[in-house]
Each structure stands twice: as C-alpha cells, then as structure tokens.
C-alpha cells in the first residue's frame, strides 16, 4: 500500500493563522484607504459649499448700496442690505441691472446651525414670494464684524478711529468691509474640522479705510 501524504493538525493551524494575519492586513489597508477617501470627499464637499457661500456673499457685498428705506443692517449672525445685481437675459444674451435686497440669517436645526439666504427685488414686498433658501448647513458657529470708524465732528481733535464692530446700522454710510469667522461641525470622525476667517471689502463703503496688515482690509 502506497504512503499517502496528508496535512497534520499543526500544519492546518499554522496555515489558518497565516491566512488570518494576511486577511487582517488586507482588510486594515482597505479600511484605511476607504476612510481616507471618505475624509477627502467630505472635506472637498465642505470646502465647495463654503466657497459658494463666500462667492455669492462677496459679489453681493461688493455691489452693496445704501438706501433710505433699506439701509445696511448688520449683526453678528444676521445681515440685510440692498445691492445691484446683474441679471442675465437668455432671450437676447444681454445682462441687465436689478436692484435687490438680500438677507442672510441663521436657524438652528438639530445640533447645528443652517444659514439661509432670502432675496427680493426692490422694492421689497413682505407678502411677495422671495427667492433663495438654504445656502450652508452644518455650521458650528459664525460671527460677522464690520469695518468702520468713529468720526469726530471737531476737526481739531484726533483723527477717526477705525475698528471692527459687532453691528452696523449707520444710515447713509456703508461699512468699509465685513469680516466673517466660520467654523463647521464634524458630524463623523472622518469629517473635517474647518475654521475659516475671511474679509470682504465693500467698494462703495467708506473710502477712509486704514491700510493695515493686521486689522485692515
């Protein structure tokens, strides 16, 4: 009778152990790669949403105007002002100017804040249907500051003092710019922790802006 080769119990245990170690190593590598991909995708989406918000708000602020019946109203978490908007007409491929009013305000939804944008064609009718809606969600905190100065009626006194104020309601005068601090929530472990500060200059605002690397615009 010929001798038949067979695996012993020890050899089977050793083989299973090797395959288990290799399997765990492959799974760990795939898991790390998937987590990195998710982090990158989540971060890219978050930055894209933030860029859209800053682009839209920046364009509107750069074209802001101050009206008697709609002065620039700024608070730490709310802003409302009139601006000149470029409206594209697809019929003749022309661009027309439209005077409108825009408002940004925060609403708390679950554990995060959501920023809404509302727009009305001027003059704004409270009963009219506005355009806009949700523009940025998943906000942890946001604050707005306004660049302005304290004017001195007596010219012999010290020159005006420029500073970042937490609110703006000066009729007939636009702020020189707006500084926005934005921090986003991290809903999952792989979500990015984003904190951004951006300054937007208002071209039609006060021309007496102090040029400073630290505090200026």
Question: If you had to describe this structure to a student in words, what would you say it looks like?
Answer:
- There is one protein chain.
- The protein has one domain.
- The protein is 25% helix and 38% strand.
- The protein is built from 1 helix and 9 strands; from the N terminus they run H-E-E-E-E-E-E-E-E-E.
- It has one helix spanning 9-62, and strands spanning 64-65, 73-74, 78-89, 94-109, 112-121, 131-150, 161-165, 177-184, 195-201.
- A hairpin with a 3-residue loop joins strand 2 (73-74) and strand 3.
- The longest helix is centred in the N-terminal third of the chain and has 54 residues, at 9-62.
Helix content: 10-25%
Main β sheet profile: 9 strands, antiparallel
Beta-strand content estimate: 35-45%
Please tally the β strands and state the result. Answer: 9
Q: Give the count of helical stretches.
A: 1
Low-confidence stretches: 207-214
Structural class of the helix and strand makeup? alpha+beta
Could you report the average pLDDT, rounded to the nearest whole number? 78
The CA-CA distance between the termini, in Å, is 96 Å
What's the structural domain tally? 1
Our Rg estimate from Cα atoms comes to: 28 Å
Shape: elongated
Give the arrangement of secondary structure elements.
Elements lengths: L8 H54 L1 E2 L7 E2 L3 E12 L4 E16 L2 E10 L9 E20 L10 E5 L11 E8 L10 E7 L16
Antiparallel strand pairs: 1-3, 2-3, 3-4, 4-5, 5-6, 6-7, 6-8, 8-9
């Amino acid at each position: 009778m010929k001798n038949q080769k067979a695996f012993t119990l020890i050899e089977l245990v050793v083989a299973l152990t090797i395959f288990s170690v290799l399997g765990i190593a492959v799974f760990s590598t795939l898991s790390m790669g998937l987590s990195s991909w998710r982090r990158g995708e989540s971060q890219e989406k978050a930055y894209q949403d933030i860029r859209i918000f800053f682009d839209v708000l920046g364009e509107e602020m750069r074209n802001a105007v101050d009206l008697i019946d709609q002065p620039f109203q700024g608070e730490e978490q709310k802003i409302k002002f009139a601006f000149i908007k470029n409206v594209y007409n697809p019929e003749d491929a022309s661009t027309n100017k439209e005077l409108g009013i825009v408002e940004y305000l925060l609403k708390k939804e679950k554990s995060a804040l959501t920023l809404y944008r509302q727009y009305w064609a001027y003059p704004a009718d409270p009963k009219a249907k506005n355009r806009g809606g949700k523009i940025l969600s998943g906000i942890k905190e946001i604050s707005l500051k306004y660049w302005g100065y304290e004017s001195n009626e007596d010219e012999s006194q010290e020159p005006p003092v420029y500073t970042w104020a937490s609110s703006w309601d000066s009729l007939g005068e636009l702020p020189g710019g707006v500084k926005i601090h934005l921090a986003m929530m991290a809903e999952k472990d792989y979500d990015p922790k984003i904190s951004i500060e951006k300054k937007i200059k208002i071209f039609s605002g006060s021309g007496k802006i102090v040029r400073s690397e630290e505090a200026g615009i």
